[in-house]
Amino acid sequence: MTSDIHTNAIKRLAYIEGHLNGVRKMLEEDRYCVDILKQTHAIRKAIEKLEALLLDGHLQTCVVDGIQQGRAEQIIDELRSLYTVGR
Question: Rounded to whole angstroms, how far apart are CA atoms 8 and 41?
Answer without folding.
Answer: 21
